User: Fold these one by one.
Assistant:
Number 1:
Amino acid sequence: MTVKAREQKSRLDPEPMPRRDFLGLSAIWAMGAALFFSLLGMLRLPKAAVLSSPSKKFRITLPKALAAGEAYVPPGRAVAVFRDDAGVHAISTTCTHLGCIVKPTTEGFECPCHGSLFAADGSVTRGPAPRSLDWLKVQGSGDAWIVDEESRVPPGTREQA
Ligand code: FES
């Protein structure tokens, strides 16, 4: 192949892209990508970014084998429900100190965080908890009950079974 033949361009050879055209095409591609991602972001906007929290009022079924004075803690709830001769009552298991979940014991409740102790009626027997556990409203009959975590009732309030 001669030098002249090498210098001769074929009509099939691609034209080298001028720098100005290359920069122009790059800008168009960048704008297209920005538009695409902004549209993608807008499509996600209508969706809620948080999960709905479970209702504070919920149904429970008391186990038939629940002994008098024994705590029933519904799964995933911060409530202990009791059934005895006087009726059914619910006590919040949220510690009044800093909000840890207290554990029912044979004598009452114990907080695993800072060691507060509560009697079976929720009253404080050892601090640092500043006040008693809240009693919560329960409604129902038999084994089917509705507990309302947002409605407090005076300590000692029981619903007849
Ligand atoms: S959170 Fe229960 S004692 Fe501190």
Note: DSSP finds two helices and nine strands in the chain.
Number 2:
Amino acid sequence: MQVAIDMGVAQGGAEAKLDLEELLATRLLVQGNSGSGKSHLLRRLLEQSAPWVQQCIVDPEGDFVTLADKYGHLVVDASRSESELTTIAARVRQHRVSVVLSLEGLDVEQQMRCAAAFLGGLFDADRDYWYPMLVVVDEAQLFAPAIAGEVSDEARKLSLGAMTNLMCRGRKRGLAGVIATQRLAKLAKNVAAEASNFLMGRTFLDIDMARAADLLGMERRQAEMFRDLNRGHFIALGPAMSRRPLPMVIGVARNPDLPPSPHLSPLPA
Ligand SMILES: Nc1ncnc2c1ncn2[C@@H]1O[C@H](COP(=O)(O)OP(=O)(O)O)[C@@H](O)[C@H]1O
Ligand SMILES: [Mg+2]
């Protein structure tokens, strides 16, 4: 069965399609600076594919909890023990329910530990339950950082290990990683390298542009086009979307609970 997800409008006016089966086999990396429209894009992808495939969203900012209202996702508040989270994840696979792991309000170290425990539970599920599942991780550089930060080595190891398992060894177990990052240069290379589909949004820093060009096999000069992209505009590349870099505008998500863009209003007198 072939399912084409409608992502919006491609250059030239045609519908921008994403082949869901192909995506499950080949994974996706979304990159774009803060405000470029990554979370909105993920939301669109999740809404459009909800009827077709089980989903898990690792949600560091609470952008996805309202998927519960319309699409029946179970929201798991991560403020509980790691072993509990692992058990819940195993049950989620067994019962094939879609789930949002809400990490909002936890400090970074806790977010890493909880995401690792949950992803570990999905990964280690019994072979009988290896059904296909989209596993979306927003702000993936938090969970798979390229360099050691302020968090403990242990938390970083756990989290990076879980992300590496997801992206490098998840496919056999039915797990299809979809990761989004605002800074490609901050994301661990081995985690980024396993995606074969890309959606590239607005990018300013040379170092991120250079990484993007390397990943996509583009000339550095060609990657300059990422600088001029508007919010919601992405360049798609990969077997699930297009064999050549294809500019597209992401359609509106039906139920966005993303914070509205800031707008100016006069200060009180
Ligand atoms: N394709 C789009 N169509 C309409 N609004 C969008 C689109 N992409 C993003 N937005 C709006 O722009 C703002 C920033 O988008 P967001 O997805 O939160 O950016 P990011 O996750 O990259 O920081 C949000 O208010 C979102 O609703
Ligand atoms: Mg976001």
Note: The two ends are 62 Å apart (CA to CA).
